[in-house]
Write a structure and sequence with these properties.
By secondary structure, the chain is mainly alpha-helical. The chain contains 22 helices and no strands. About 50% of the residues are buried.
């Protein structure tokens, strides 16, 4: 067996191990070490196992991950999700389907200060689901809206997935954040459009809610200044060149801590919980990064990426056809893997192919993360579907799945637009230099 075919066998083997329930980090790490042993003997495997875990986490740029995680945790304890939902609901909640659109808008804004899809679903779900149930919304529409809205936290900056993609491909994290803005807003608008179409076809699934008077709207608007301020400082600071993404993450973490303290959401117990939650999530991400580094080191030594590039060139496929095949591969893989594992497992393999085809890595990253979003709400193991079910008592998986199709179709429309018009991603980073 040639080295390249051994790499392909290792890739398939890692997928099989993950499908059988082995933790992603363990599956990738074990296949990487055993594969490198097969190629270079025990001495080579021992060297890789001794050096790669340290080298994979040593770069200073990786400190951005725990800082953005901490920012999102403190933002949750500050109660910002409740304020966002109440303000948007005050303006559009009285319209048919307005509470569902409010949920999408609140998810998009909270995702902008959280950066995590699962955290956005859990936080917004606790606020939005009781309101939609109280006003007689169909549970399928309500739960699917929460699950789909949470995916916006993956793309709208600051996004942990974009940070990891940037670190893996040596792409500018700032450019990725800027490039994700228009696709993120487009996703929110398409989700809102999907809700409106659903409500137009079936008016009974989303009754109208009471109207809020202008006095109440203005009073509620005074509660969202912390969100606007935090987003403006963190993202605006990156765009204006005031500080790097790592420095922005530190500023955001401190700002979210101060807001949680001022708004009464930070006690001794919640502070302890925040630190533990940040450490646990960061540890999980870093453990997966170590496994991915071991696995990718093995793949690079097999020459598998180069074999795939040669196979594509010899097949005579057009760039569009290869793009469609890559996207189809990601959508199928997203039905069985969580988005972070999928990014870590596949991006090092596909990045050389993307470069050979002439893709801009910022555009490719936004497209890949968009496809990862689809995986978060695609049965059978879309992670957001399970988080919604766990957040709302008495909700079955079938109920959530029945309402998710319009949102998947909206994501596919967005994906087609991003492929057809790369300027949707690249125009803003180019305009801002």
């Amino acid at each position: 067996m040639s080295d390249a075919w051994l790499g392909l066998a290792g890739f398939v083997g890692a997928l099989v191990l993950i499908a059988f329930g082995l933790p992603v980090a363990v599956a990738m790490g074990a296949v990487g070490v055993l594969g490198y042993w097969w190629l270079n003997g025990w001495a080579g495997a021992a060297y890789v196992l001794g050096s790669t875990p340290f080298e994979s986490l040593f770069p200073y740029s990786f400190s951005v991950i725990p800082l953005f995680v901490m920012m999102g945790v403190f933002a949750s304890y500050a109660g910002l999700s409740r304020s966002l939902f109440d303000v948007i609901n005050a303006f559009i909640g009285h319209r048919r389907g307005g509470l569902a659109v409010t949920t999408v808008g609140a998810s998009a804004l909270f995702g902008a200060i959280c950066g995590s899809s699962l955290a956005t679903v859990a936080t917004i779900g606790r606020v939005a689901m009781p309101e939609m149930k109280r006003h007689g919304y169909d549970l399928s529409l309500a739960s699917a809206t929460v699950a789909a809205g949470g995916t916006l936290g993956v793309l709208i900056p600051p996004s942990i997935l974009l940070v990891i993609y940037g670190l893996l491909t040596q792409s500018s994290i700032g450019a990725l954040f800027i490039g994700a803005l228009i696709p993120g807003v487009l996703g929110a608008l398409l989700y809102a459009g999907a809700i409106m179409v659903k409500v137009w076809l079936h008016p009974d699934v989303a009754p109208k809610a009471p109207r809020t008077e202008w006095r109440g709207r203005l009073r509620l608007m005074g509660r969202i200044w912390p969100v606007i301020l935090l987003f403006a400082v963190v993202i605006g600071g990156i765009y204006l060149g005031w500080f790097s993404p790592t420095e922005a993450a530190a500023v955001g973490a401190v700002g979210a801590f101060v807001l949680a303290l001022l708004m009464g959401g930070l006690t001794r117990e919640t502070l302890r919980s925040s630190v533990v939650e940040t450490a646990a999530l960061t540890g999980m991400i870093f453990f997966i990064l170590i496994g991915a580094a071991l696995f990718n080191f093995f793949l690079e030594n097999t020459g598998l990426p180069q074999m795939l590039i040669a196979a594509i060139q010899n097949a005579g496929l057009s760039v569009l056809m290869v793009t469609i095949l890559i996207l189809a591969f990601y959508i199928i893989l997203g039905c069985f893997m969580d988005s972070m594992s999928m990014i870590l497992l596949t991006v090092p393999l596909l990045t050389p192919i993307a470069l050979d085809l002439g893709f801009d890595l910022v555009w490719f990253g936004i497209v890949v993360v968009t496809v990862a979003e689809i995986g978060l709400i695609t049965p059978p193991i879309g992670m957001n579907l399970f988080v919604v079910q766990g957040t709302v008592g008495g909700l079955t998986q079938g109920t959530v799945v029945r309402g998710i199709l319009p949102f998947i179709l909206a994501d596919i429309v967005r994906l087609v637009l991003l492929v057809a018009f790369p300027a949707l991603v690249l125009w803003l980073p180019g305009a801002m230099g």
